[in-house]
Write a structure and sequence with these properties.
Structural class: alpha/beta
Number of helices: 11
Number of strands: 14
Number of domains: 2
CATH topology of the largest domain: TIM Barrel
Shape: elongated
CATH class of the largest domain: Alpha Beta
Order of helices and strands: EHHHEEEEEEHEHEHEHEHHEHEHE
Distance between the termini: 21 Å
Oligomer: single chain
């Protein structure tokens, strides 16, 4: 039995080629694509301005997938965590963060993660598999449906979510081709039309892919650094054994930053590991010459990890050293920690860890 094509896996140009292959006019692809990027669309019959012939042909060869949240949890601070069970039983999570009338959606790129960062619960669960473009984009559409049902009103669907951050489950650059397709779908002017300044892709440090990302698409880059010397960083983040600090930062220096754009460096402060004044001075030296902003993230303590959060005075001293060195540096409070939705806390109970 032939598996039907999921149209939500296709970019607009990919959809045009697919339709042409079915003997349908490629010029109508943009209308079909626009419907595919509307929350709540699950059936070809909903495509009111698409001819009956095109709809019938597509229905015979293709499907329109959608995600249904199997669990929603809301934090005391308004953060909402969504858990999605995929068709093969894999589970992944997304987090909607409201702030001052704006909404940021934290998107997953994999079910689980293979990077094994020592401070991250997602890394501890291992990698189940990469997500397809339809599953990445599907998170956005599913959350838009939730927001519409909750009565959130904006002029367009696109304006419901102000920012997309690829900081959920998984290493986005380890699922590069599918990530790139999803970004092109999300940024397409015939669809949701997210602009480059509204999308941030975070990486733990796959240096060659940082260069690829800078070449292939214009989005914001965030780098999970967490230590400025190879010994400490390799202990915390196994990826550093392949691409060390200097190689990673060389790739960051090559990343195109037009106008006033900067790279966001994320630095989790862990007591007794990477929080000394010497660590702060080393970080300031390593980042010299890179247009950047630094977010300091006090470690989110949990029972399953032995690390601890530094005392407040240590965190403030660390920040002061960086600010005195000329860096824009902010201490970010975690959102959704009470529902395990904060940084490093996303983890499903799935038991299978093989990649597909």
């Amino acid at each position: 039995m032939t598996t039907k094509t999921d149209l939500r896996d296709l970019t607009c140009s990919g959809l045009a080629a697919y339709m042409e292959g079915l003997g349908l006019p490629a010029s109508r692809a943009r209308f079909v694509f626009a419907w595919l990027q509307r929350p709540g669309v699950r059936d070809f019959a909903q495509m009111a301005d698409v001819s009956r012939e095109i709809r019938a042909t597509l229905a015979g060869h293709a499907v329109i997938s959608s995600l249904t949240s199997v669990q929603k949890e809301e934090s005391r601070d308004g953060t909402v965590k969504f858990a999605f069970t995929l068709r093969d039983g894999a589970v992944m999570e997304s987090v909607l963060i409201p702030e001052k009338g704006r909404h940021t959606l934290c998107v997953s790129s994999q079910a689980g993660c293979a990077m094994g960062c020592r401070f991250c619960l997602t890394g501890a669960m291992g990698l189940r598999r990469n997500l397809r473009p339809a599953e990445i984009v599907g998170q956005v559409l599913a959350v838009l449906e939730h927001m519409l049902a909750a009565g959130v009103k904006r002029t367009t669907h696109r304006e419901l979510i102000n920012n997309l951050v690829f900081m959920g489950m998984g290493e986005p650059l380890a699922n590069y081709d599918k990530l790139l397709a999803a970004l092109r779908i999300l940024m397409d002017g015939h669809g949701l039309e997210f602009t480059e300044r509204r999308i941030t892709v975070s990486t733990c440090g796959i240096a060659p892919r940082i260069r690829d990302l800078g070449r292939d698409v214009r989005v914001n880059l965030a780098v999970s650094l967490h230590a400025a010397d190879d010994e400490t960083r390799s202990r915390l983040m196994p990826v550093n054994r392949t691409w060390g600090v200097d190689e990673l930062l060389a790739a960051c220096r090559d990343f195109p930053l037009p106008g006033r754009k900067v790279i966001l460096f994320e630095y989790i402060l862990i007591k007794g590991i990477n929080d000394t004044e010497a660590d702060a001075r080393r970080l300031a030296g390593k980042l010299r010459g890179i247009p950047c902003r630094i977010n300091l993230l006090p470690f989110n303590e949990c029972e399953s990890l032995s690390y601890q959060c530094p005392e407040e005075q240590h965190i403030l001293r660390f920040q002061k050293i960086l600010r005195d060195a000329g860096y824009r540096t902010f201490i970010r409070s975690s959102r959704g920690a009470d529902i395990s939705a904060a940084c490093g806390q996303l983890a499903s109970r799935g038991s299978s860890h093989e990649q597909t």
